[in-house]
Amino acid sequence: MPIEWLKKEEPEQMTQTLERDNQKDACDFLGTIASEEALSKMEVPAEESAREAASLPLRQAPEAPTTLMEEPPMLDSRPKQGSQSLLPDLGEAVAPPWPDKIEEEVQKASKLSLADWTEDKNRKEGHHTPTSGTQTPKTKAVSDANSDSGPDCMERGFSLSILDSLLRDHLEREDKGSSEATNQVPKPVVVVSSEVNPWSKTGGLGMVAGSYGYEFAMRGHRTMVVSPRYAEYDDAEQIGCAKVWLDGGEHEVQFFHLYQDLGDGNGTDYIFVGHDCFSREGLYCDPKDGKEYPDNLFRFSLLTVAALEAPLVLNIRGSTFGQDVLFIANDWQPGLLPVYHLYKYRLNDTYKNSRCVFVIHNIRSQGKYRLSKFPIDSYLGLPPEAIEFLQGEDRSLGNDCMNLLSAACLACDKVLTVSQDYAAEILNLKSGSGLNGILQQNGPNRMAGIINSIADDWNPRTDPHIPANYTRSNFDEGKAACKRELQKALGLHQDSGVALLGFSGRLCYQKWVPLITEILPWLLTDEPSGVLGRIQVILMGKGDDAFASHLSNAEKSHLGKVCGYVGFDPKVEHRLLAGCDFLLMPSRLPQMYAQAYGTVPIVHETEGFKASIVGLVDEQKDRETATGFQFCGFDVNCLKERMYQALEVYHKKRDLFKQIQINGLETNDNWTEVVSDANSEAGPENISMERVFSLSALDSLLQDPEGKAELRHQLELDELEDKRPKYTSHHLSKPVVVVSSEVNPWSKTGGLAMVAGSYGYEFAMRGHRTMVVSPRYGAYDGAHYVGYAKIWLDGREHEVQFFHLYQDLGDGNGTDYIFVGHDCFSRGGLYCDPNTGKEFPDNLYRFSLLTVAALEAPLVLNIRGSTFGQDVLFIANDWQTGLLPIYHLYKYRRNNTYKNSRCVFVIHNIGYQGKYRLSKFPIDGYLGLPPEAIQFLQGEDLNLGDDCMNLLSAACLASDRVLTVSPNYAVEIQSPEGGQGLHGILQEKGRQHRMAGILNGIADEWNPKTDPHIPVNYSIRTFEEGKAACKKELQRSLGLQEDPQAALLGFCGRLCYQKGVHLITEIIPWLLQNESSGVLGRVQIILMGKGDDLYANQLSNAENRNRGRVCGYVGFDPKVEHRMLAGCDFLLMPSQYEPCGLPQMYAQAYGTVPIVHETGGLKDSVSGLWDEERDRETATGFLFCGFDENMLMERMYQALEVFHKKKDLFKQIQINGLRKNYYWPQAIDEYERHLDWTLDGDAAVS
Hints:
Blueprint: H1 3-6, H2 11-17, H3 28-31, H4 36-40, H5 48-53, H6 100-110, H7 114-125, E1 140-143, E2 189-192, H8 204-218, E3 223-228, E4 237-246, E5 249-263, E6 266-274, H9 296-313, E7 326-330, H10 337-345, E8 355-360, E9 368-370, H11 387-390, E10 391-392, E11 401-403, H12 404-411, E12 414-417, H13 420-426, H14 436-441, E13 447-449, H15 475-489, E14 499-504, H16 513-524, E15 535-541, H17 545-557, E16 562-566, H18 570-579, E17 582-585, H19 590-596, E18 600-604, H20 607-610, E19 629-631, H21 636-652, H22 654-665, H23 705-717, E20 736-739, H24 751-766, E21 770-775, E22 784-793, E23 796-810, E24 813-821, H25 843-860, E25 873-877, H26 884-892, E26 902-907, E27 915-917, H27 934-937, E28 938-939, E29 948-950, H28 951-958, E30 961-964, H29 967-972, H30 983-991, E31 995-997, H31 1023-1037, E32 1047-1052, H32 1061-1072, E33 1083-1089, H33 1093-1105, E34 1110-1114, H34 1118-1127, E35 1130-1133, H35 1143-1149, E36 1153-1157, H36 1160-1165, E37 1182-1184, H37 1189-1205, H38 1207-1218, H39 1224-1240
Parallel strand pairs: 2-3, 2-7, 3-6, 7-8, 8-12, 12-13, 14-15, 14-17, 15-16, 17-18, 18-19, 20-21, 20-25, 21-24, 25-26, 26-30, 30-31, 32-33, 32-35, 33-34, 35-36, 36-37
Antiparallel strand pairs: 1-4, 4-5, 5-6, 9-11, 10-11, 22-23, 23-24, 27-29, 28-29
């Protein structure tokens, strides 16, 4: 077991906490890329302190306050990670701390020798080691003398609000006590990019490349930036040429050099590669037709080889850069650089000590070409074995695909992304664009994300582009002046009392432009409350013509109130941020600019925004911390709800609005002061909902309303960290009808029944008149006959009976349970014959009967004095009720019944879809539906072909809203990999804003303070003693050795492959082995469940071989599950996929630490321990990526090491979990919101 690995971050560890990594500084990474021997020779230039304190462009030392700057520059007083002291006082030079992070990351890769590298790559990916007999590149260079002439200091330009993370050298090692540290020389850095600001730029990539050139040089690196020469650049002089072999022949390129002198001996060498193929109007595409140039592979291969030659052959200011350099290649255009670097150089004893870092700026642009058209050997000049890196996959090209981006990820020494959040996204199926597997394989040593920050120029104290500079002390007057000038310049009414909203970004769907333009009429409508109406909006950007037209039309329709500026001017962007009251930013970085200018951002709640914005959730609690407003859900109603709150604060709570502005002004998000870690008081964390899953639930106290009320009262007294104000639905008068094939406690095979029972209780407790409709599988006590209905099905009428049971919840609330009686339901199993295990052949008939009966019940049953009536909301669950939205549409709404009703469909497991042959069950003759219903009912199936009826897909198409059982599962099922053939339908539902994921809550009885099934009750104050007593009793009762110091691990679930049982049984010998470190060995394991005989035998065998240390309980006892969660130290949930999962939330409520696979709802509900210092106050468990025993072992080792050797940290993780609030009162808020949005909107199909 490679112990070193356990102490480093995994990709999934990084993906959830990368946002917090920005306390470590970005370029720390690069200094340590050098070998240990090279590091020992490095030195910090003697003039370091003087240079830091001197006035330099964009890097000015703090100055004493002047008349224009009434206060000193802000410094973040928080200590950097790993530092024992705070930042210096104003009189000291402040070294920019942001780059240290990258140095740390690359250090891991830098210590690998070439042999280590190839062995590691082969081990992970199964590739053979490339031979060393590859020929050297057919290049011939001519160097010319170079002068030191060059332009004076050059300032960076600004993009459309995109500045990506920079890498810089870790030079602050002098305080570590090493005499050798003062003699360190930073490693030369060679940045390779297809564009570099200010010479060439289409977006953020050009900005980042320009920033790299400046920042690395400012940190003391000898720095070269290599980019194409698209035009004649002033002051760039030719200094040499090279002949590069490509496409079967030699091609000459010229090198043009420009030196940027930054003072104090620092500077950047810009090398522009000249060739006729670059001399075009567009960088990548023909501006006349918008199509990509057909020879782009040739162009950027030429750039790549030229970039590898430049450090070797160009004599720049007296010497070459040499072989001992670090390359930083950016995006797909130089994606071949790591491959050439390996095969043409390193394996031929050139660049032996160099390393290559590859930065992904946009994973969707990958550089794909046909291998048959561009052969690896004859076109690229690479050996045939390079196919292992270059061959990719593509739906159109198949195996004939060459993928430059994936090749770079495989062959480079380190993969970086442009933000921590983006690193998280591209590691999953949804956002990885087919490369998530490769990126996950790179492992913790070769994959990282570094958060973006903002440039020094974004400072209202010194910004030359705004009409009035201001500081925190005079920002009221400064912003008022900027607002007046902005209104005047853009033709808006000069009204200081209006709320001025701004948007600056690309005009595209991703930036949510259609949502903003859609709500403009609503924003500008005068209404009595005085919240809406007094508003002005500025929209600036360029992009899609359709969205550009939206802007122009909006301005014409609202002259003086709306400015639609089609185009982009960086100066206007600065003025916009200074003059606006709010910034609308439903995607990324400008929110940090806004806060720096006292402008309040209204943003979409994503992981990236959680790192930099504290949302106003509770006005009292968040008053001193909130810096903006966040909304969740890809939905216009979500945006409108948060907009209304923001405008209400602006117009009616001016003191609160001013405080939010001040909070933002005090936030340090620039390059010198990196965004602080998530340990800051960022306000309540959004707890969504999750469904109750499979074996993990004891029957709720559904028949004991008084007991249930007492548990709910007890919960309200608990010290849970997230107690947001309860959401108040504006449709509480709307009756809710829940339809499910099972409902707890009367019928249950798994989580669906638990959810249906919870719906029945929770909606009624909120004030809805609530009905739950389910089959009558048996004679249920207390359920009385109340009526019948005749239903046409299968060519004739069938009578069903309705049985009613009322659950009185007190205070006028209660639930009506309606059980549908018919002979077809009176069997031993719910869905399958218990004797054969096969599905009942008449299930389509049975659940069609249930569906129509559920639609009839609200109309015909007089319950407690009245019917539910037509104006109701249906919640249908899973495929068994999939026909409900179809009947609802064709049999009722189109016949003027249920005209104002709506139907929500909930997917609990997309793997079960309800597929039948259309030819066997005709739509008209069997189901009694019109022929046109085929548009919804016809699905696809490999076996059935077009003769397939798919109930789940029909429900998704015809329902008014589709919900799933966790937010992450909602993402997964919209991907080809997780959608089980329905991803296209669900993606379209998402585009219509009718798709969402909600994590359900857990029942109140899962509370260690009140649980009657555990030997000792306990609270967060007494959990140590309580859990110790529960652990002792659990060990005694299950025949385990009574050892309080043993780590007690528990598993409770179905015994099947999907639950990862085989992963646990395979590692049991490893867990129980004694080893010198004291981490393994002192372990006990409890495995409980029922299912496949294969896994049941494995449990029995494990117990027989390890008596007293392993308990294999084949079966299920809900009381034992409660005792396990109270007595165990860890809960294991290594599920292959988990739509939701509840045991991990039960575990946290009991102070038991979950170890889970990062998938589905597990990812939504467990906060991982990635960095022990950073995550100490937030981690609630351990997550591993990859459905593999080795990945589980790595995380298990970390968890056990914490348990045995870091008791204080383990206790803190337990406390963090005990403080979590996953109970239904929080969760039901999200359902109520979605029900409101569904009822407020139009029907999906009319």
